[in-house]
Structures are given as structure tokens and as C-alpha cells.
Design goal:
18% strand; eight-stranded antiparallel β-sheet; alpha+beta; 683 residues; five-stranded antiparallel β-sheet
């Protein structure tokens, strides 16, 4: 997203109660791109690349499609046209249907590796006088200035320096119009500039020194034509020559000349998977997590909606906490459902091995495409000194996944050796950041907005040590890890309030707020129970803690149907005009999963309270399922919701999708996914 687009959006949405002006939002629409490139298709069919973190290419930054008939253009985003959108089955093929009074157009969008195909099929037009008008703004190297074009007859090449973007259409357009970017007067005016601009600047270089194109293409040029196709291709000039790029885009344009060809290619992208309960949710979760993944296996947290850091620190990066938690949830889900994700687990494990620092820890966040360090604010162990701006839970989360994968996964000998070396070093890093009282050092929290000694960080340490103690490792290492797990379990006494585990210790004082991230203690205790016994008091405390957090952070605003859990007491982030804390899908999903994990733990102890927590898990999970109030029509889980029901922030967010998947698997494994009365009725 360039500054010009940011300013235009800012002008459109100043004063909104639920929109942050200047962002590029994705709560509506759907993504295509199960490989490196990630393309958003808005409800009106317009395209935008979110590819940079995954592939290093920027591609399309703005676009608009319409129909020109008898000299008049009807844009698909106008009020006169009704558009509906869906995925084609379990694939990542986006189908958008545009309906006017006397015509319709069906648009098919599929991203294939570094190419994106858009195909239009129309009905109801006079053949001779109708054109599809495509406005596309490319930003190679993230620039909307100093761009050049090369015309290769049937292909247009746009470039700044390293990134070269190609566009081809079928049929070939008779003419192409370039447009220079918005001028300074328009940038500083109060009115947002519409695109494409209707008036040419009258400069001879306008058609060639521009990344903005207006391309009119004949729609249904003859009765045998099956539609109109546009293909864009993003390449790095040092990796792909012009000749190779031209050959490839021409082949793609010729190949995808029908909806049937695109549907076939989309189906080939998705492996066959077994039937599962809550199939629609499981399909959506796997699709989303694949969309957000780079070829390395690392995932961005979500599509980056705030690239200028106007309201956040950005989302298009890999956090080791989020990513390793996703990996662990995927591993558990795959173990139960047999989802054939072995290549996903192996790529994730190798990525963590490759990105570990010499001290055994992991940095704040990295670029998913190559693992290099990305801009961040919590790299105290990378910088000089030993400050508190280190997120220790990230290292704990990576260890827990790698240890579980070593125990349960299927890997080759080289990867196994790498994991063993990584875990040996990681244990040292974990020990180095555990204080003598059994709690992790003063550091940043999971929400990245405060420092202290947190219950959630302790939970990740307990889970990591317990996983190490149960992994097929050297006996001394396992005994050492078990001893440290016992120390963390005792250290939690410092955070006990009498009803729940407090958010943190801050300068030795208890910050007795409720925190949804501390729900991770349920899974951590269950992991510990696999290697050692929990006493009755520890279990009772966990029950009381989980109940307190689920009850205390529950929100059911009257303004809409949305309901669920807030992040923590007194959370004021991105509230706009809203008085209360917003509802978060990751917190709600955490609640569902924690209740399910606790039900598992209690059931193994023949504790009658297991049924109640299974019920609470189902209820919270229902809010996140496709028919629930926190799930978009696309199947996506946005990060947050305003009380009025408007989704906000990163959409889809990978973390709650992984938790949703794992919760479905956990409840199904316990045979409590359906209430007893429902199962009895079915029987």
C-alpha cells in the first residue's frame, strides 16, 4: 500500500466509529494463493497483493473492474451492481458473481505460484459493443513512482528495479492507457481521488512512465469464446529472465481460457483429506493457514493492513510464538484426524532450527520467506545489554512444538539430528531466563504491550519443560527438564490470588487482572500430567483459575450478536469510540481450547467436573464456527470485533484458526464434541 492510497483511504474514512482511516482492510472478501503469492479479491472483484512478506514481490496495489457498453462504463463497485462471492468447494478459487438488471458476469480468481489468473464469463450482452475495462495499479519494489513499461505486443512489463511485473490478456487489447500517479494538488485536497482518473495529464510520457493501466478487453468477442482472461506474473529479474517470464505468462494465458481449466487447476492445489466433524471449519482452517504460509513453512500472523504502522506494529511477519503455537496445534490435529500434514510439520521444524540464535533463543519476529530478522521492538537478546524487551514465551512455544514433534512426528534422520541439537541449545536458553523462584525473567508479554513476569510466559515454560521431559532425548536432559517443570509449577504460587493466577508480577507486586493468555495454563498442566502427577490442590487451582478467566472476561454486548472473551481486564487497544474492551477471536478460541484441555485432564482423573468444562468448550467453540457470530461469511476469523458487530484488524488471523482446528480435534478425541442429549437424539 503506497502513501497515495493510504491518504485516499484516510480521506474516505475520517471520523468513522469502527474504521481506522488509512488502512487496507480485509474483513470482507477472500484470498487466493496457496503458494508464495497472496492476492485479496474484494467483494466487488477488485484485486490487491499482500504478497511481499511471503515472496518479496509487491504486485498489484489497486484495481477496479467494470463493463463498458455503448461508451458507458459500469464499475463493479457501483450501487447498481450486486456482487456475491464464494470459494469453489474446498479450493482457494474465488468465484465472484456480478449481477445487473439485464446482464451478469462471473469472475474466477486463482493464484498459482507467482501468477494470478482472473477469468470473466458473461451473459446477456450484445456481442459487438461490450468491453471489460480493467484498471490495475502495479507497484514493483513497492514504488508507485519511477516506474517504466515495456510493451511486448501481447504482454506488458512494468518495473522499477529488481521486481518486474507482467500483464497479459486474452483477447489482446487494441489499446492500453497508462496513467501517471495522483498529482500533488490531489494528494493534499480534502477529497479522495477516484481511480482511474478521467482526465489525462496531457504529458507525452504518461503512458510509459506509470504502473497504472487502463486496459479495455473485448468481452465475448465471438460466439465460440469462453470468456476473457487476465494474468499477472511477479518475478525478480535476477531469478527469472525476461524471456522465461514472457514464455510463462503466455502459456498461462493460453491455458486458462475457460472456467473449467481454472477449476481443474484449483482442485489440484488441494490434497484429498479425510472427512472430519465440523468439515466446513476444518477446511477453512487449513485453507487459511496455507494462505498465510511462505514456501519455508513459516506463516505471517495475518495480512498486513497497516504497513505504515499508523495504528499498530504491523502484521505481515512471523512471530515464533504464534507460528510455533500454530505448528503445535496442527501437529495435535493431524495426530487425531490424519490430515497428511507431514510436510508442513517438517518445514516448520527446519525453519525453527535454522533461525535459532547462538544463545538458544529466538528473536522477536522474522521475514517468513527467508528467516532474516524483521523490524521489531523486542530484540533485547539481539541488541547490546540485557533489557526486558524480550518475549521469552516465544522460545518456550518453539521448544514445546519441537519436542512434541520429535516424540510424535515422522522425519528423516538429518532433521531429527538438527532438532536434537536445537533442543539441547534451547534448554540452555530457557534455563538462562528462568529465575530461582521458578518464574521466567522480567520480559515482554504475549500481547506485546507491557513488561513483567507473566502467568502466560510461565505457562509456556511449563509446557516446554514438560514436553522436553517426555521427548525421546538424553536421560539427563529429560530429568533436568522435569526438575525445571516442577520448579515452574511451584513458582506459580507467586501469582496465585486465591481465585486465579494473576496477569503478572510487576516490581514484586501482583497485578491481579484477568488475562486470557493465562488460559494457556490448562494445556501446560495437562502436558505436565503426562510426565508427573498433579496433586489435588494444583488441579483445584487450575479449575478455579479457568472458571474465573472465562467468567470474568466474558462479554455479550447488546448492540449486536457478537459475544466472546476480551483479551484482559482494562484492555483499551483499538477501541475507537467504544467504552468497553473489544472481543478477540484468539481469546475466545483460547477459552474453548483451555476448557477442552481441562475436561481432558479431569476426565483422566475420573473427576465429574470434566462434563461442565466440555460443555463450556463447546459453547465457546460454537461462537467461532461458520454459523457463529465471530466467523465471517468467508470462514475467516478476524482478530477483533467492535460491540456493534464490525470486524477489525488482521483478517484472517492464523492463530485462532489453528486453535479452532485443535479444539475440534480435542473434543472429538474425547467424544464430547456433541452434547450427550444431541448424541442420544441422533442414536
Amino acid at each position: 500500500m503506497t502513501l497515495r492510497d493510504t491518504l485516499a483511504d484516510y480521506k474516505r474514512h475520517r471520523g468513522s466509529a469502527t474504521r481506522f482511516p488509512g488502512e487496507r482492510r480485509t474483513p470482507a472478501g477472500r484470498f487466493s494463493g496457496l503458494d508464495a503469492r497472496l492476492v485479496h479479491v474484494a467483494p466487488d472483484g477488485s484485486l490487491r497483493d499482500y504478497s511481499y512478506p511471503l515472496s518479496g514481490q509487491h504486485g498489484i496495489d489497486r484495481s477496479r473492474f467494470g463493463i463498458r457498453c455503448d461508451g458507458e462504463t459500469s464499475w463493479f463497485d457501483s450501487d447498481e451492481i450486486a456482487s456475491t462471492q464464494r470459494y469453489d468447494g474446498e479450493t482457494a478459487l474465488v468465484v465472484t458473481e456480478h449481477e445487473a438488471n439485464d446482464w451478469s458476469v462471473t469472475q474466477y480468481d486463482l493464484t498459482i505460484s507467482d501468477a494470478h489468473v482472473t477469468h470473466f464469463v458473461s451473459d446477456g450482452f450484445p456481442v459487438e459493443s461490450t468491453e471489460l475495462v480493467a484498471y490495475l495499479g502495479f507497484v514493483p519494489d513497492g514504488r508507485d513512482d519511477r516506474i517504466g513499461q515495456l510493451r511486448h505486443g501481447d504482454v506488458i512489463e512494468l518495473f522499477h528495479a529488481d521486481e518486474h511485473d507482467y500483464l497479459a490478456t486474452s483477447p489482446v487489447p487494441e489499446e492500453i492507457h497508462g496513467q501517471v500517479p495522483t498529482d500533488f494538488a490531489s494528494l493534499v485536497s480534502d477529497r479522495a481521488t477516484e481511480v482511474p482518473q478521467t482526465d489525462e495529464a496531457g504529458r507525452y510520457e504518461e503512458s510509459r512512465l506509470s504502473g497504472e493501466l487502463v486496459v479495455p478487453v473485448t468481452l465475448n468477442g465471438d460466439e465460440d469464446d469462453e470468456g476473457t482472461t487476465l494474468v499477472s506474473l511477479l518475478v525478480d529479474r535476477d531469478e527469472t529472465s525476461r524471456e522465461v517470464a514472457l514464455d510463462r505468462i503466455r502459456e498461462l494465458t493460453a491455458q486458462f481460457d475457460s472456467a473449467e481449466e481454472i477449476q481443474t487447476a484449483a482442485a489440484e492445489q488441494v490434497p484429498k483429506r479425510p472427512n472430519t466433524p465440523e468439515t466446513e471449519a476444518v477446511v477453512s482452517d487449513l485453507r487459511v493457514l496455507s494462505l498465510l504460509s511462505a514456501e519455508t513453512g513459516a506463516r505471517i500472523a495475518g495480512p498486513d493492513f497497516d504497513p505504515f504502522y499508523a495504528y499498530s506494529g504491523g502484521y505481515g511477519y512471523t512471530w515464533f510464538r504464534d507460528d510455533a503455537e500454530i505448528s503445535r496445534f496442527l501437529l495435535a490435529s493431524d495426530s487425531h484426524f490424519d490430515l497428511s500434514l507431514s510436510d508442513w510439520h517438517a518445514r516448520s521444524a527446519q525453519f525453527y532450527c535454522d533461525t535459532q540464535r547462538e544463545d538458544g533463543t529466538w528473536p522477536h519476529r522474522v521475514w517468513p520467506r527467508d528467516g532474516t530478522i524483521a523490524p521489531g521492538w523486542a530484540n533485547a537478546r539481539v541488541e547490546a545489554g540485557d533489557g526486558a524487551d524480550y518475549q521469552a514465551d516465544q522460545t518456550g512455544s518453539v521448544i514445546a512444538f519441537l519436542a512434541n514433534y520429535l516424540r510424535d512426528g515422522d522425519m528423516d534422520s538429518e532433521l531429527e539430528s538438527n532438532i536434537r541439537k536445537t533442543l539441547d541449545s534451547a534448554l540452555g536458553g530457557l534455563d538462562d531466563t528462568l529465575e530461582s523462584d521458578g518464574l521466567p525473567v522480567h520480559c515482554q508479554n504475549a500481547w506485546e504491550n507491557m513488561t513483567g513476569r507473566f502467568a502466560h510466559t510461565a505457562a509456556t515454560y511449563l509446557e516446554a519443560y514438560a514436553a522436553l521431559a517426555g521427548a525421546p532425548l538424553d536421560t539427563k536432559l529429560r530429568e533436568r527438564a522435569k526438575s525445571q517443570a516442577e520448579a515452574v509449577l511451584s513458582g506459580l504460587d507467586n501469582l496465585w490470588t486465591g481465585e486465579f493466577y494473576a496477569l503478572r508480577l510487576d516490581d514484586g507486586e501482583i497485578d491481579a487482572r484477568l488475562d486470557s493468555s493465562a488460559l494457556a495454563l490448562a494445556g501446560a498442566h495437562r502436558a505436565y500430567s503426562r510426565v508427573a502427577d498433579l496433586d489435588a490442590e494444583q488441579v483445584d487451582r487450575l479449575v478455579s483459575h479457568t472458571e474465573s478467566v472465562l467468567d470474568g472476561l466474558w462479554r455479550d454486548p447488546t448492540e449486536s450478536d457478537v459475544r466472546g472473551l476480551a483479551r484482559f481486564d482494562e484492555d483499551d487497544w483499538r477501541k475507537r469510540e467504544q467504552a468497553e474492551s473489544k472481543i478477540w477471536t484468539v481469546s475466545t478460541a483460547w477459552g474453548a481450547n483451555a476448557a477442552g484441555e481441562l475436561a481432558h485432564l479431569l476426565s483422566a482423573r475420573d473427576d465429574a467436573r470434566a462434563d461442565e468444562f466440555a460443555r463450556r468448550s463447546r459453547e465457546l467453540l460454537s461462537l467461532l464456527l461458520p454459523d457463529g457470530p465471530l466467523c465471517a461469511d468467508s470462514g475467516y476469523l478476524p482478530e477483533q470485533f467492535f460491540d456493534v458487530g464490525a470486524a477489525d484488524s488482521a483478517t484472517p488471523l492464523g492463530w485462532p484458526h489453528a486453535i479452532r482446528l485443535a479444539t475440534v480435534a480435542s473434543l472429538d478425541e474425547q467424544d464430547v464434541l456433541e452434547a450427550e442429549e444431541a448424541k442420544t437424539a441422533l442414536d
